[in-house]
Amino acid sequence: MKIVAMGRALPQYVLDNQELSGMVETNDEWITTRTGICQRHIAKGETVVALASQAARQALAQSGVPLESIGVVIVCTFTPDTATPSMACMVQKELGLPQTVLAFDLNAACSGFVYGLAVAEALMDRQGCHALVIGGELLSRLVDYTDRSTCILFGDGAGAAVVSPAGSRTVTDFGADGNAELLSGGGYNINGGREPLRMNGREVFRFAVSTVPGSIRRVVEQAGCTLEEVDHFVLHQANHRITEGVARHLGVNLDRFYENIVHTGNTSAASIPLALWEMQEKDLLHPGDRLVLAGFGGGLTWGAMLLNW
Ligand code: COA
Questions:
Q1: pTM of the predicted protein model
Q2: What domains are defined for the chain?
Q3: How are beta strands 102-106 and 70-76 bridged, if at all?
Q4: Would the CB of 11 count as within 6 Å of ligand 1?
Q5: Is the Cβ atom of 148 under 6 angstroms away from ligand 1?
Q6: How far apart are CA 260 and CA 182, in angstroms?
Q7: Residue 255: is it exposed, middle or buried by C-beta count within 10 angstroms (0-12/13-18/19+)?
Q8: Residue-wise pLDDT tens digits, 216-239
């Protein structure tokens, strides 16, 4: 499987730490040192479908892949505009993709994009086609802006990848461990209202730093290479200190981990494709580069993937 091109879309409105400090009892210094986040984009009217379609259009235009070659559309999200139609079906309509596409949403929270790439790889084999894998989230829908332990972390956005069945097989490692105590939200309460995001930050932190390094080691070992031979590590952007912790556990220099959390915050399934888009824009990705992607979060879920650019 090969990622042919990336696209991205961010809401116009930027909520910075200064403005958040006027909404809850917090301050820029606390947020920056504990999370690495300075600002996040927040939707004011934009929808998941609109952002996902915009990102997908950009990726398709860059890829040169004709619409008729797209046979699979996966939108990775746990904050869809509607449960049905799925976001993937709406992207099919917005972009005028063939009605022969297999289109569906995938909810693996912050591991979504890595799960989505793996599912797309398997489906492309069956269908003999290209795929569109999109991470699109409006976390601001679920955030309680009176809860300072969560509202500082999350942002909105979408990143899209056009994926081709060409190239070498990816190597993956996945896991899931049902647990609503650490991170939950988005269900309906007894009055029919949406439940906001609730999180035990410390425990989520511990889960991430103790699970992700093992998952990365397993994909590297399975691929028959070493950590030194990996060109870029692209982790879900949850917290700069989580990335630091994972790098430390692996004994890998932090400068090989791409980070953009400073200006996007945690955008769940959108965070890895947003980072890949930026890396491509900065010309950091070259044919044959070995990448390790690692998602982790709600579910609990986690997943690592080694692929060649
Ligand atoms: N501003 C100022 N103070 C805050 C604050 C804020 N936004 N949020 C919490 N605090 C306070 C707490 O009330 C606590 O005060 P106390 O010591 O008087 O009780 C103190 O800061 C420490 O809180 P704690 O929760 O232990 O901080 P932390 O160092 O664990 O950082 C997180 C909190 C949320 C930043 C951190 O746990 C984290 O990032 N966890 C992972 C979350 C994540 O990535 N979730 C998504 C997974 S995909």
A1: 0.96
A2: 2-164 (3.40.47.10), 171-308 (3.40.47.10)
A3: parallel
A4: no
A5: yes
A6: 25
A7: exposed
A8: 999 999 999 999 999 999 999 999
